[in-house]
Amino acid sequence: MPYVLGMDIGSTGTGAAVARWRGGTWARPEVVALDARSNVVPSVLHLSPDGSLAVGEPPVDDPGRTTRDFVRRIGDDVPVLLGGEPCPPQTLIAELATWVVELVSAREGGLADAVVLSHPASWGPHRRELLHQALWDLDLRNVTLLPRTVTVAESHAARGFAGTTAAVYALGGNTFEAALVRRHPRGTFETFGLPQGLAPFGGVDFDEALADHVRTVLGREFVGAAHQETYRTLRGLLPECERVKRELSVATAADVMLALPTGPVRIPVTRAQFEDLIRPAVQATVDLLARTVHSAGLAPAELDSVLLAGGSARIPLVTELLAAALPVPVETEPDPQLTAATGAALAACQVVAPRPRRPEPAASMPVSDAGRAEGPAVPARRHPEHDPAGNGEPPPRPPVRITPLNLPKPSRLALARGRGREG
């Protein structure tokens, strides 16, 4: 069955979704389970003793052979060291993307007709070219790169967002993005204004704030414990705090559970306590989003909505502070960690079969309440990702079937080491 694939490779987690061709149309995207315990797999690569790269957290952490948070390193002059060898960050991203493509292809029984990979909205042509070349080197040649803000807007539009202009608030594990998007007459979206971001910053900082609170509460127990026992406890503290953070998104109280040398302990935490710990940091992200809106020459009331994405965007305090700062609806999805991946799959449907053009607003025509001009259609301006030349002409419709990829073998470390174009 024909299908398309959308991917979102974040700094801490990677998600994917597929949309299948059924009954003469593209069905609603379905999330791909990339991990046995979760739909999202950690964006972690581990160098195995045989030289192959494994995806996800290794059974035993080996800092010298494990790499994390390499997504935001793309474009750096200093490569990532893995097993003592330099690896360009873009090649590591391409490796992870290839792993997803291989996994989905094996389950679907064939290759996707189109693949869309989301990337930070702040990336310029240099970083996109680096990633394109790395994907090409691994024979991934039917991949379209789109800003994460665009894929987020696509996902929200499929769930009912009918506005024209929106602010995107994307709060991930180790990054935060604030950007603006607007809808074209054809229905696609583009980023405009100057995207803003904070990195490294994200949900991991909230986990650490809660962990500091726990350490303070258990100060005496930690001081009295043996060094090795204390290390084992502290190693499990952050994952436990991450679990409690997610639980407090739906509950008003939760317990941090730890096994100390003196026995198991339970530290109750209320949502109010947790929100007091992270309020200044969340407020900083809201302020940055407001500045992003003003820098584009817009008043907050001119927005149609604020669209949320990222795993940490599910925290109720985020919606509360955004609603107080911006007088427009704040929209989130059931699992905002997968919003960008789902939107990437929706965008991939358009790569294969673009939407028909709809009328574009004109100053001389009356505008309806929905914000669309009542009059004949005018030529649509294509998104710059789809029209690199900027000549305003839509590209020819690609064939439904793309030439099959020659997927590389599981072990590709030789390619990763020392390769990468910096031009």
TrEMBL record:
Give the matching Pfam families.
Answer: HSP70 (PF00012)
Keywords associated with the record: ATP-binding, Chaperone, Nucleotide-binding
Which Gene3D superfamilies does the annotation name?
A: 3.30.420.40, Actin, Chain A, domain 4
Asked whether the keyword Chaperone is assigned, the reply is yes
UniProt GO molecular function: ATP binding; ATP-dependent protein folding chaperone
Which SUPFAM superfamilies does this entry report, sorted A to Z? Answer: Actin-like ATPase domain (SSF53067)
Q: Does the keyword ATP-binding belong to this entry?
A: yes
The lineage's top-level taxon is: Bacteria
- Annotated region described as Disordered, given as residue ranges: 355-423
What is this protein's name? Hsp70 protein
Look up and give the organism this protein is from. Micromonospora viridifaciens
Its lineage reads: Bacteria, Bacillati, Actinomycetota, Actinomycetes, Micromonosporales
